[in-house]
Amino acid sequence: MEIKEIIGNPDYSEIIDLINTIWPEEFGEKSDEEKICEMEKSYNLTSDTIKYLYKEEKIIGFYRYSLWPRENKKTKSAHTLDIAILPSFQNNGLGKYLMNDLISDCRKKGINKLLSRTFLNNKGSINLHKSCGFREQMKTEDSIVWIIEP
Fold first, then answer.
1. Which H/E stretch holds residue 18?
2. Which residues are CB-neighbours of 82 under 8 A, at least 6 positions away?
3. Residues 19-59: tens digit of each pLDDT
4. pTM of the model
5. Residue 12: which of 52, 71, 48, 72 has the closest Cα?
6. What is the distance between the alpha carbons of residues 47 and 65, in angstroms, rounded to a whole number?
7. Which of 20, 23, 73, 104 has the highest CB neighbour count under 10 A?
8. What angle separates helix 94-108 from helix 123-131, to the nearest 10 degrees?
């Protein structure tokens, strides 16, 4: 297994299977092309970090996080945007492996507060955040906002 940071604009078409695994029903039905377009629009080259998890040259997972707020380049806070593992590789600790790498990457970059959001119906993500040491900061009608100080 190897985790590699993507430099420059990612090609989201190469991870569409991963995007499909995390696309929340709350965002509505979209075609693959529409999802890719949404991901491209939401990407910020100067504040976002994206890394892929490879197994024998196949991308099996990824994560993406951003400085928060994005407009403040001196911020010491970040927010997870996405974390996913292909279904056939889930339940083997790889989500925790990726999340721990994300937390470590934040620590190396001087981030002292990492926020994350999980929809209440995403039990896997809730368990992942708890197992990685996140604390519940607040709960809304449909989500939990998590916090950890890397």
1. helix 16-22
2. 19, 22, 62, 63, 64
3. 988 887 767 788 999 999 999 999 998 899 999 999 999 99
4. 0.91
5. 52
6. 8
7. 23
8. 50
